[in-house]
Design a protein that fits this description.
The complex is a heterodimer of chains A (286) and B (327). Chain A is mainly α. In chain A, 74% of the residues lie in helices and 3% in strands. In chain A, helix 6 crosses helix 8. The chains are: A mainly alpha (286), B mainly alpha (327).
């Protein structure tokens, strides 16, 4: 029973990360129709920034989080402006290839700066506490709460603010949004910034639990794609729920079925979905 | 929904002209002028990768579909040759066609399934397939030896009096297969199938509306592309002599993508030229080797923005503007 509870908790921790990353991916896809292959690398950069700030500059964990989130938000906006906006009217093949280029670039840059080694990152919440009678590292509980808080903030932003409404309008119908006077270029830039910031939150939160290394983003991107495709490309709720579901399936499957092929699960599920539903499970809706 | 830059290749009428022959003669002389075996090895590798890049160009450049499973087929071809030789004692000359056939078959089946998804979905789907192939190769230890890989793969046996033990003989063998590939693709482009593919690339809905079997055309392209990746993979295994799961890594696909993009997507000679430029530079320049992917990644982003048709495209528009000015 305790093993099950532990695995469910593990699933929720990983699921928080998956959902945060998938939310950004789905927002970008929804508003700009770009499959951002580099999204996991933004997540990885967030983790590295916090590692550098905490372990090398001695900053406090939450200060590092704030700096990483702001830096990545700016980087996301720059990426949109410099790389993706000029390709907006080009064939869709071009923006996909550009995204792949950004992906390779970011991972290689991280490897050049910090090396290929696995880096350990400290957390101020290393102590073990009792969580519903379960012994858990305090950082995991903090991660669950912080991830949930960021997701709720995002949802409130999307549903309660004018900027959020503009993002949703652009996702539903870019031309219509343009017609009613929404600056879709600005929307795209803001979307990219928010998405990158969410990826950074995920990266900084998971850094003390999993190790930090250049390739840590690659698998997360792919998992996020699986989630987004399952939940419907562009769907926010789909990404949110899908992230937790996939992580739970992985952690339970890894414990009770086979640990060797754990990483394969997601891709097999994706292939099965595409085999029977070539256009994904749901129609996109934000 | 034109997928490519307008200067992407469309078949010209008339003969091939003198250029291919000049290139072939140069390629035949080139190995004799190289100072040592190290450069010969690089040259041979470049030929092999160029075959694979040509294969990617068939599905990407001619049919306009971004397949990210390409290195998976390279891996299948390589492992087929390697395992047939080391486990069953099958000679390279039988293993190679077997590997190509296996790739063509799996390409046909996988293509039939993946190609039902379009655009972004196709790219994501094929990426998942590529990763599955890579992970299976890596984890299926009883067959592939996992991370350790396959060692001691015998090279090609002598054909009649010609032995392929020397580096130079192998480089000519690779050149032979590359030339064969180039001729085959040229014929494909100028055949009705090639025209159909380009119609699909430029506007698949219109093509479908006028009665083109779009699915069959794309599937043909995918199968040919997989078979060429298999040929390259088989040669790679036989020449190098050892093989690890990283040969099927998705990064290989990205390398091929860069070769095709630099040379000119959709052009006949582009992928070959691109392979030589990029792979050659990455091997010769120490600086490039150290931060190879930083440069590769940046190059992809810059190319797609400013030179989406690659060198071939830039050359073509240069010639065109010269001609226009002369008139």
């Amino acid at each position: 029973m305790e093993l099950l509870a532990q695995q469910v908790l593990n699933g929720l921790v990983t699921g928080s990360v998956y959902s945060l990353v998938a939310l950004g991916l789905t927002l970008i896809y929804g508003t700009m129709h770009v499959p951002n292959f580099a999204h996991g690398q933004l997540f990885m950069f967030g983790a590295y920034l916090s590692y550098a700030l905490v372990m090398r500059s001695g900053l406090h964990y939450w200060a590092a989080m704030a700096i990483a989130v702001v830096t990545l938000a700016v980087a996301g906006a720059v990426l949109e402006r410099v790389v993706f906006r000029p390709l907006r009217n080009a064939p869709h093949l071009n923006s996909m290839i550009a995204a792949l280029g950004v992906m390779l670039f970011l991972e290689a840059v991280a490897q050049n700066i910090w090396g290929p080694e696995f880096r350990y990152m400290e957390t101020p919440y290393g102590n073990v506490i009792s969580f519903f009678g379960l012994p858990v590292a305090a950082h995991r509980v903090i991660l669950l709460a912080a991830a949930a808080a960021s997701m709720i903030t995002l949802l409130l932003f999307l549903t309660r603010t004018t900027a959020g409404a503009a993002i949703r309008a652009t996702a539903q119908d870019p031309e219509g949004a343009l017609l009613v006077g929404i600056d879709t270029s600005r929307v795209a830039m803001i979307t990219f910034a928010i998405s990158a910031a969410m990826a950074a939150v995920a990266g900084v939160l998971i850094a003390p639990i999993s190790l930090v290394y250049p390739a840590m983003g690659a698998l997360v991107t792919l998992k996020a794609f699986v989630i987004v495709v399952l939940g419907g490309m562009g769907s926010v709720t789909g990404a949110l729920i899908g992230g937790y579901l996939l992580a739970l399936a992985e952690s339970l499957g890894g414990t009770y079925v086979s640990a060797t092929y754990q990483d394969l699960v997601a891709f097999v599920v994706l292939s099965l979905v595409f085999t029977f539903r070539p256009a994904g499970l749901f129609k996109a809706s934000v | 929904m034109a997928l490519l830059h307008p200067t992407a290749h469309t078949p010209r009428s008339g003969g091939p002209g003198l250029v291919p022959w000049a290139v072939l003669v140069a390629a035949l002389i080139l190995p004799l002028g190289l100072p040592n075996d190290y450069y010969l090895e690089i040259l041979t590798q470049a030929y092999v990768f160029a075959i694979s890049a040509c294969g990617l160009n068939v599905i990407l450049g001619l049919a306009g579909q971004l397949s990210l499973a390409h290195s998976g087929f390279f891996g299948i071809g390589a492992y087929a040759v390697a395992l047939l030789a080391t486990k069953a004692g099958v000679s390279f000359w039988l293993g190679l066609p077997a590997g190509i056939a296996l790739c063509a078959l799996s390409g046909y089946v996988i293509g039939s399934i993946c190609l039902r998804s379009k655009g972004h979905y196709f790219a994501i789907f094929t990426m998942a397939v590529g990763i599955i192939i890579h992970l299976v190769i890596q984890k299926w230890e009883s067959l592939t030896h996992g991370h350790i890989g396959v060692i001691g793969i015998p090279g090609p046996d002598p054909v009649g009096p010609i032995s392929f033990d020397s580096t130079i003989a192998r480089s000519y063998l690779a050149l032979f297969f590359l030339a064969l590939t180039a001729v085959a693709i040229t014929r494909l482009v100028r055949s009705p199938v090639g025209r159909t593919l380009m119609a699909v690339r430029e506007n698949d809905m219109l093509a479908e509306a006028v009665g083109v079997d779009v699915m069959a055309a794309k599937r043909t392209a995918f199968t040919i592309s997989a078979a060429l990746a298999g040929l390259a993979g088989g040669l790679f295994a036989g020449f190098i002599g050892f093989l690890g799961p990283e040969s099927a890594n998705v990064e290989m696909t990205f390398n091929m993508l860069l070769y095709v993009m630099v040379g000119g997507i959709g052009s006949l000679s582009g992928p070959i030229a691109g392979t030589f430029i990029v792979y050659g530079l990455s091997q010769v320049l120490a600086v490039v080797q150290q931060c190879q992917m930083v440069i590769f990644g940046l190059a992809l982003v810059v190319l797609i923005r400013f030179m989406p048709a690659g060198l071939a495209g830039a050359l073509r528009s240069l010639v065109r503007s010269r001609v226009a000015r002369a008139q």
